[in-house]
Amino acid sequence: MTAILSREEGRKLLSAPKKKSKYGNTRVQVDGIWFDSKREAAFYGELKQREKAGEVSGVDLQRSFALLGPQGMLMATYRCDFAFIDHSQDHRLRVVDVKGVETKEFKIKRRMMKALLGIDVEVIK
Questions:
Q1: Mind listing the domains of the chain with CATH numbers?
Q2: One Pfam annotation, family name (predicted)?
C-alpha cells in the first residue's frame, strides 16, 4: 500500500516535534556511527584512543551472542554495545554495555551470559 502526502502534510510530518527518549538519553553521531547516548559515544572515543595506542584490539560494536539452552535450542540473543580484546588484562575478551538504567531484561540476559557462556558483562554507568 502506498500513501500519497501533499506538500503541506509532508512538511507537517517532518516538522513534528521528536518524541523524547524513555530514559532521557540523546542520540549522538560519531565517525558516521549513531550511538544511543552521549556516554556511549564518549566510551567509543576512549576505546578508539586505546586501540590506536595498542592497548586493545578487535573492537566490535553491537556484537550479538546466541544464548543456547541445554539441547542447543536458542533461548535468547544478547547484543552488547562493545566487545574487544584487552591486552592489559591477559588478552581477555571484554564485553561492555553502557547503561543509564538496568532493565529487568538486561539483568536476566547478563546472568545468562555468565551461566551459559562464562562471560562477565561489564556495565558502564
A1: 25-124 (3.40.1350.10)
A2: DUF1064
- Condensed to tens digits (0 to 9), the pLDDT of residues 81-118 reads 999 999 998 999 999 999 989 999 999 999 999 999 99
Half-sphere exposure of residue 117, counting CA atoms within 13 Å on the CB side?
20
* Residue that the C-alpha cell 547503561 belongs to: 99
Burial per residue of 53-63, b for 16 or more beta-carbon CB atoms within 10 angstroms, e otherwise: eeebeeeeeeb
Distance in angstroms (rounded) separating the CA atoms of residues 67 and 77: 6
Sign of CA dihedral 75, 80, 85, 89: negative
Task: Say whether pTM exceeds 0.90.
Answer: no
Instruction: Please compute Rg for the chain using Cα positions.
Output: 19
